[in-house]
Structures are given as C-alpha cells and as structure tokens.
Protein: histidine kinase
Amino acid sequence: MSHVPAVPEPAHVSRVPRTLLDRVAQWWRTSALTLWAVAGAAGLFQLMVLNVASYTYPHLPLRGWVIVALLLAASLVARRLWPLAVVIVTSLASGAVDLWGPRGGLNLLSMLALYALLVTASTRDRLIGFSISTLCTLVPTALAKWPQVSTLSPGILILVLVLAVASISRSRREALEHGDAQLAAQSAEHRLVAQRDAARHQARVAAELHDSVGHALTAIIALSEGMQGAGGSPQTDEAIGMMNALAREGLADTRRAVASLQTAPGPSPDDAETTDPLTGRVLEGPQSPSGAAGWDRLDDLLTTVRATGISAALTETGKRPLDASCSQALGEVVYVVVREALTNVMRHAEGATRVVVSLDHDQATTRITVSDDGRAAQPGHADGFPGSSQAPAAAGHGLANLAAAVGEHGGTLSAGPTADEGASGWVLRALVPFPEGTPR
Structure:
C-alpha cells in the first residue's frame, strides 16, 4: 500500500523576478518617505523660484505667492489618494501664475502631480488630467506670446517627456502585475491538480483497506464465532473470544481509517450500526464519543497483553484535565501511544515477562512511559511469531508514524534500550501537552 502524496503548500506568493530598477520604482510609488520628500523638495524649489522672481518683479506680492506655493506643494502629499484633484488644483494655479505672475513659477508642481496621475489613475482620469494640464500649461504662454508659436515648444516638450516617462513606468508595472497574476493562477491550478491526485490516491487506499484488510478481519470474526464453544477447554474458548474481540476492534479501526480517507461527505460508519457482510450480524464495539478509543480502553489493551502470558501493570499519578473535551482529546493520544508501545512489546520483545505503563500528569503535560524486560527480536522473528522468515513490509514505520502523530499535538517521543545497567528491556517515553484551552 503506497503512501498518500502530500499536497504542496505554497510557501510564498509567486512573483515575476524584479530588477533593481523595478524595486526602486516600487519603493518610489509606495514609500511614505518619497511622498513627503517630493512635496518638501518641490516646496523648497518653488521658494527659490519666487526668490529669484522677486528681483525680476519688484512689485510682486511675494508673501502671498509664497503662501500659495507652499499650500500647493503640500497638496502633493495627497497625489496618491486623489491624483486627479491634485492635478486640477496645481494646473489651474500654475496657469493663473503664468497669466498674472512670474511665468513658470508653479509648473514643477503641476508636472509632478501629472506624473503621479498618469502612473496610477484610470484611463478616464488620465485623459481629463492630461487635458487640463496641457491647457493650463500652453494657453497662458500662447496668450502672452501670440503669435510667436515657437514659445510653446518648451511646454510641449515637458508634457511629452512626463507622458513618456509615466507611460513607460505604468507599462512596466502592469506587465509585472500581469505576470504575477499568471504565476498565481498557475500555482493555484497546480495545487488543485495535486489535491485531485491526492484525493484519488486516498480513494484507492480506502478501497484497498476495505477490500483486503476489512475482508480478512470480517472472515476472522466469522470463523472465530463459528469456533466459539468448540475449543474443548475454557482457555481455548477464552482465546477464541479474545481473537474475535480484537478482530472486531481492528475492523472498527479500519472502518474509521477508510472513512477518514474518503473524500465524499457522508455519515461515518461509527454513526450507525454496521452489519458484517459475511455473517449478517451487527458489529459493535465500545467507542468514545468521538469514535476513537480513549481512557476507558486502556484496560482492554492490558488484558490483551496478559492473555499472551506477559504481566502488565498500569500506574497513574497526578490528575487528568478537568475539562471533559480536553480530557477526551488527551485520552485518545494516550491510547494511541500505549497501544503502539504494547503492540511492539508483543511483537518484538523476546522473552518479555512484564510490561509497565506509567502515566504521570502535571499542571500542563502528561508523561507516558512504557517499559518491558524483553530482548530485541532476532532475525526470523521480526513479525512477532517465531519461525517467521519475512519481516513485515512496514517494519519500523510504527514508531515513526507515532512520533509524527505525537508531534502534531505538540509532544515528543523517544524509544530505546533501558538505561539500567545489567538489565535488558526497552523503554518508550512520550511527553504530551494538555490540549489548548485546558483549565489549569
């Protein structure tokens, strides 16, 4: 049975590689520093222009023009939020100054606002803003110098230059955004394909479990029920009964595994009574409210171990979580750890005579310790049955899967030979924190 392929999780959003110039342009468009720096630099420049103009126009009301220039420079701070409004205000002010004040005194402000508009705004706003800026730049010059049309050349050149630079910047930004969108769409498509493949694989695994393991366990249940009372001795009948109970438990676990792998929504097999397809009898088993075994099934695990001739004991210190749901969730994890540990004792611990399960609760964690006095299985006994010549296909996967399951709950797991000098045996230790939200 193959492993279910993992669906890749996107570690980061896919983006088209950016050049240094792209990063600088993005920083220029988005940084608050550039927003204020441009407005401040433009304001200082306008003060310099007005200072020079005061010598050319000695009767110029300098104080009023300074106030107007600073207010318009401050309006550039809003050029990203309301680019069209800023273009209209600065362009009209620039045109008015060209008519009644020092020509070109506020042109820089209107050009900076126009650039921001052309880079970020919609097509409609760009057309309106560029038209207003063009009229406010060229009409005052034409009225003042008519019919010397050549005097319009500097204004036209500046407008064309701003339009060209803004168009290049906008085209590059839109190309990058389009590339990012394509990469994001491809990434989403790949994830959907991976999820679909994983779902198909899960369906195949569920079918394999249902058809092979489920059929075999159902047959064992039917055969063991047919043998009940025919053993000739109480010990044999007890062993047959335990075999029947273990097969039922395994079948219930298999059904839960199949239900968890099935992608189609539907009622869980444990939500209702299920019928044995061979015997026609209702298959039932003690379940916790969530459908998984918990604290109340630990004694059943020990009973199974004792039936193999191994002495099994359980000790518990401290207090379990008071909250019922938290205690149930913790109990399910404890059950899984203890079950795997005891299964390994029965399968791999040669000569084991005793096994001790210890549960120690403190304020926030439960420490699980399972120790035995057996020896590691030798070749030929890998599956727990003497004389077997073939190790199980998934040998060694149990502890790895168990460590992963404990890790999902924030815990840790370790296993190895006992540290007691001169003693044989194996010790499994797990530390499992209480579920989040557990009352202290």
